[in-house]
Amino acid sequence: MFDARRVRDDLEAARRTYGGRNWPDTFKDRLTDPLPGYRDVARILRQGGFGVKDLSDAPKIPVAQQDRLPDVHSGQTAVTWIGHATFAVQTGGLTILTDPVWSNKIPGVKARLTPPGVPLSGIGRIDAVVISHNHYDHLDAPTIRQLPRDTPMLVPAMLGAWFRRRDFTRVVELDWWESVRLGDVELEFVPSHHWSRRSLTDTCKTLWGGWVFTSGDTKVYFAGDTGYGRWFADIASHHPGIDLALLPVGAYEPNWFMKPVHMSPPEAVRACADLGARRMATMHWGTFVLSAEPLLDPARKAATAWAQAGRDRADLWDLAVGETRATGGSPPPR
Q1: 65-81 b/e with 16+ CB inside 10 Å = b?
Q2: Alpha-carbon separation of residue 173 from 43, 92, 207, 213, 315 (angstroms)
Q3: The whole model's pTM is what?
Q4: Structural domains in the chain plus CATH codes
Q5: In this predicted model, what pLDDT tens digit does every residue of 146-186 receive, in sequence order?
């Protein structure tokens, strides 16, 4: 007699032990704070939902689209903001995509406010994709389906099966503080203050985190999605001398609900200091309507907090969608 529960349990066990690993069946013990409960969600809905209603400032979100990524000087590291949490990071001769989302629409929210800064066809060779966690605004199936199946996919623990089901052949699952080396670049998966869920039944079944890319003396930190907390100082102790931190500054209102898992702009500036990072690039705003703050407030409040902290304005990279900026001098040549 067919036993659906046994088949499900066997498949789950196979996923947990794939590649000789022995992953736990849940990562809830990694949560920094308890997740909001049904009463919290009901309160949000009574207040009108998660998204800001006034979209009149959308045309003011800065956009500087490019047809393709620029060339990068040898030894130079450049980042191009595609939108939301998607960057093309060019470092150590590699092009790394973070949380690639090129779709116009993702489940549960309005269509994107701004177009992708560079078309996917303009990225060229993709040497690696890194995923921070499995929320739909960070793991986009329609975008992933467009990528070559031999693209190296570096993903959190227990998320590998999602990619293997889609026939990707170079999938590596990592725990916090584990790393992979590709060419001259080391890519390390590091903790974040967040959570995971892709359906009603898989809360915290996969891990979440950020990434540090090290090429020679240059270090770039990609936070993924995170609240503020102690992990930034721990990351700094593991990775002193971070040159650039890609930090989320949006999706923080209402603060009583979002604070455990999303940073406000002042918290992002504080996190940059905790990381010991010289520069900060803003992200996670200006693309999808996820929360209640006015559309332009994340970038404006980040600039204000940066100035109040006495930081050099040139080290705050509040990029336009599609803009490229590089460490070590002038922008890369076209």
Answers
A1: eeeebbebeeebbbbbb
A2: 37, 22, 10, 16, 33
A3: 0.95
A4: 4-326 (3.60.15.10)
A5: 999 999 999 999 999 999 999 999 999 999 999 999 999 99
